[in-house]
Every structure is written in C-alpha cells, then in structure tokens.
Amino acid sequence: MKNFISISQCSFEELRRTLDVAERLKKQYRATGHNDPILAGKTLAMIFEKPSLRTRVSFHVAMTHLGGEGILLRNEEVGLGVREPVEDVARVLSGMCDGIMARTFEHQKILDLAKYSSVPVINGLTDYSHPCQAMTDILTIQEKLGSLAGKTIAFIGDGNNVALSLLEAAGRFNMRFVLAAPKGFELPDAEVAGLRAQMPNLDFHYTISPTEAVRNADAIYTDTWVSMGQEKEKEARIKAFTGFIIDEKLLAAAPPHAIVMHCLPAYRGLEISDGVMEGPQSVIFDQAENRLHYQKGLLAVLMGNAQ
C-alpha cells in the first residue's frame, strides 16, 4: 500500500489494517494522552486547492500526535499545474518530505502526484472521490454498531464524491448501500458498472424515495446538496432536492437503532434538520473527530509501516 488515492484501489486487507491501527492509536491516546512517536522526524506536505476545516486540522494534529510535522502549502504557493507542473511539484516534495496529502479539484492531479512521487500520496479530497472521509465513516459505523458486514448505509442526497467513496467502502466491507437521489443526481452508471465488475458481490440499490431508502437502514447519511464549485447551481439544486431532507419525519420511518451521519459542513434546514442533527441518533461530531483517528492510522501505515 504505497498511496491512498481511492478505496477501490486498495484491498480489503490493506483497508482493514488501517482501521485496526487507527483503533489502536485512538485507544492509546484516550488512555494515555499521547501516542507512540511512530513518525518522529517525518514531515507531511499538505497541499490545499480547496478550503478546509476537518482535513487540515486532522492531518496536522495527527502528524503532531505521531511525533512528526505537517507543512501547510496553500494553492497560491504551489499552483499545481499552473505555477509549476504537477510532476515537478511531486518530485521536489519527494526530495524534502516523507509524504504528500493534497486536496484538489481535479482528480487527475492526485493521480499525477502519485505517478511522479517517490513518497506516499494521500487523496485528501477531489471532485471525484473522498476516501479519507469514507474510511472515517466506516470506522464510526464499526464503533457505533459493533460490526460492518451486512449493515446498510442509506445515503440521502447527491450522488457525489462522498457517495462514490462510501459505495466503494461498502463493497469492500460487505455492506449494503442504498442511494436516494432525484433523477439526474444519481451515481454515474459507468462508475457503478466498473465497481460491480471489480466487486461482483456489490450490494447497491438506487431509489428516488428517501423513505424507501431508510426503511432498513443502520446508518443514514447525507451531505450538502451544493458542493464547492457548484455555487451557481445553488437555487436549482435546492429545488431539485426538495423532499430529501433528513428530518424527524424521515427518521421515524427508519429502524430506531439507526445512526445519523453527515460529513460536514452542514446546512441545517436544507439537507438535515436542526432537531435531527442535535438529536440522540446523531453521531455527526463523533464522526468528525474520527477524521483525526482514522488519518492517524493511515499515516502510521503509509509513512511508518505500522502493523
């Protein structure tokens, strides 16, 4: 496991290893207030084309807890593909740092960084996928529900980068994934077909009915309807997603044990009601904290060869 670009490129065993290490490091930190300095003397370069709260803080704090250091590189300082070619940036950073994490718009930039880098490259989010978030969600579901195989994730909203990565994760961990989205906002057929070819047992269902989606759900998930770069589509998207809010009425149609998840930032009153977000079934802020813990496990495996 040299890089972490997408979940579908990783085996079950590789993903399971990152989860196991993350769990161990989380327990150690909770019990002692510190982690072993697995990454002492190592540096992670962190490139941000998009604004970030959870990604920036979680990676930086994770490196600090593991004895290493994270260096923030803003887009105007790097200019991937503009100020300098991506391949040049990859080789320069490989000579100075021990790992690269990038949060970009175009997925191709992550692929090119990985191609030309001699150190591990981590996808911190692209318009195509968000594997760190999805694996954090898997960690959270495992903690809250006790197991993964056979559990159902109901994703209510846009078939976006988070939904795609969650579907990949569900396939790897033998979970069922149900997407409820308006027509025109579902996951691309070509992507689903590609995953089915790779994962013959992929358990995926699409519906236009949020109520149908949550009926047997163990985890109910949503994300913003208007992602970064889609601001001009805001009014049209809000209109298209009318009826897709996770509110008290929809939650009542789900099993009482179902947990509610959101990758944040949340727009209360649009994709999720304030009452549900603050309610007893919400694990949203535990989920947010787990970005730190999962990424500790990921960094420890990729940069420290942790077992």
Model description:
The chain is of the alpha/beta class. The chain has 2 domains: 7-130 and 290-304, Aspartate/ornithine carbamoyltransferase (Rossmann fold); 131-287, Aspartate/ornithine carbamoyltransferase (Rossmann fold). It has 13 helices and 9 strands. The protein has helices spanning 12-32, 54-65, 75-78, 86-96, 107-116, 131-145, 161-172, 189-198, 210-214, 234-240, 248-252, 274-277, 284-304, and strands spanning 43-48, 69-74, 99-103, 121-125, 152-156, 176-180, 203-207, 219-222, 259-262. The strands form 2 sheets. The chain has a 5-stranded parallel beta sheet. The protein has a 4-stranded parallel beta sheet with strand order 2-1-3-4, sandwiched between helices. β3, α5 and β4 form a beta-alpha-beta unit. The protein is globular and about 55 Å long.
Order of helices and strands: HEHEHHEHEHEHEHEHEHHEHH
Secondary structural class: alpha/beta
Average per-residue pLDDT, rounded, comes to: 96
CATH third-level topology of the largest domain: Rossmann fold
Radius of gyration, in Å, reads: 19 Å
Output the number of helix runs.
Answer: 13
Q: What is the level 1 CATH name of the largest domain? A: Alpha Beta
- CATH H-level superfamily title of the largest domain: Aspartate/ornithine carbamoyltransferase
Number of strands: 9
Helix content: 40-55%
Order of strands across the main sheet = 7-6-5-8-9
Question: What's the overall geometry?
Answer: globular
**Secondary-structure arrangement, i.e. CATH architecture of the largest domain:** 3-Layer(aba) Sandwich
Number of domains as seen in the coordinates: 2
Low-confidence stretches: none
